Amino acid sequence: MKSSKEKRRGGFFEALIREFEFPLERAQVFISAFHHAMGQGLAGRPSALRMLPSFLSRPKGEERGRFLALDLGGTNVRVLEAALEGAGRATLKAVSRSVVPQEVMSGPGEALFDFLAGCVAAFIAEHPLVEKGERLLSFTFSFPTEQLAVASGRLLAWTKGFTAAGVVGRDVVSLLQDALSRKGLGGIRVAALINDTVGTLMAGAYAHAACDLGVILGTGTNACYPERIERIGKLSRKGEEGEMIINIEWGNFDGLPANRFDAALDRASPNPGRQRMEKMISALYVGELVRLALQETVLSEGLSQETERVFSRPFSLSAEQAALIAEGRVEDSPLLGRFGEKERRVLISIARSVFERSARIAAFALTAVLTWMDPSLTRKHLVAVDGALFEHNPFYREDIRRTLEVILGDRADKVELILVKDGSGIGSAVAGAVAQKEKEALQPESEG
Q: Using one digit for the tens of pLDDT, what is the confidence trace for 68-95?
């Protein structure tokens, strides 16, 4: 028979786990709220979903050529050259990687863009390019940006720990182009500005014609999809046919039930009140949510001093470590192996509940976008997904799949999730090709 203390502790754990439940019976309520926010954002009215036009359509899969790409997706920056060979085939010819120093992330904006231009200069020095004259470069800039044209965009807000001064509100392509000129690289023209989410859709659609949704489930989270131009009211292009990829910036959706751990994390973040859904889903935050819940467990239930010491420092638990705990992989997790069996069970159940909620919210958001495009899900949809959270955690992918089946029933068979790696690389090159093709198509008209 359990003692009163054991019963109280069991009740505490059950209540804590319930705080991370995502009520699937209310999924349709949340989907309706998401659809309303999408409509408001497309119309240019105040909305948690920015619904940013990319000024790009999906590729046809036959684009060809060699393109440079610069990818700033977080603390790492890449420069690469990709060859598009048509028939959905693309290969990387060369890649270089650099880490953005902390002082550059938080210093003057000009220093950040000089650093990026320096990375391009170093890449060209190491990998001499055959073609002479003007070279096209696609810029993957994975931060909330209001796109003004295919190669122009104004930074709305920094995320992912960046605070570089003098950049918010300015055109990041102009800042990069000026920095390239200062480095003696005036022959390089920025042909397209995208974020990693648009790049993921571009890469997926280049290889698979049915791909119509791009999703990031990694350090951050976001999604994009092709929208009919006639429905994008903020563009004022009445009567124009065709499609344009819309960057939803869904991490900022704020219509989900938050618990006290979400509130504590939000208060301690650099951007309180923003990116509320991202803070429930993404790899940047899931480890901290697990740590906060464990910290309360230590304080309330008197777990060992070892537990208190290990989980006392903010953001000390990475998503990778938390995922190993959630799976109960003692053999792969030195951290989990430091605890006894009872404490392991507590750690595993708390971590599992945080990851399960993340996957359920991701599945809800996927469903919302898919049913916006195709209300009855009458056609097949391929969803291109990139990001470590999705790629490296099979249990997470299975949770998303199960949740889609609960929400959609038999219609879940219409949805296929495919891993598309390096959307910010190959996808960026594809964006450059699409942008150049569309520019060439308009050239005779502009010259006439």
A: 999 997 788 999 999 899 888 888 889 9
What residue segments make up the domains of the chain, in order of their start? 57-208+422-433
CA distances from 340 to 28, 298, 312 (A): 42, 14, 19
Least Cα distance to 351 among 332, 333, 326 occurs for: 326
User: Span 122-135, mean pLDDT?
Assistant: 76
Is 32 one of the catalytic residues? no
Residue 46, classified by CB atoms within 10 Å of its CB into exposed (0-12), middle (13-18) or buried (19+), is: exposed
Q: What is the pLDDT of residue 296?
A: 79
Q: What is the DSSP letter of 233?
A: G
Residue 45 annotated as catalytic: no
Is residue 196 flagged as an active site residue? Answer: yes
CA–CA separation, 269 and 24 (whole Å): 28
Least confident of 279-283, 287-291, 326-330: 326-330
What amino acid is encoded at 444 in this protein?
A: P
Looking at domain 57-208+422-433, which of 3.30.420.40, 3.20.20.80, 3.50.50.60, 3.10.620.30 is its CATH number?
3.30.420.40
| Residue among 114, 171, 196, 386 flagged as catalytic | 196
- DSSP 3-state assignment of 200? helix
389-400 pLDDT, tens digit per residue, is 999 999 999 999
Residue from 78, 135, 291, 360 carrying the catalytic annotation:
78
Q: What is the mean pLDDT of the chain?
A: 89
Residue from 54, 142, 282, 428 carrying the catalytic annotation: 142
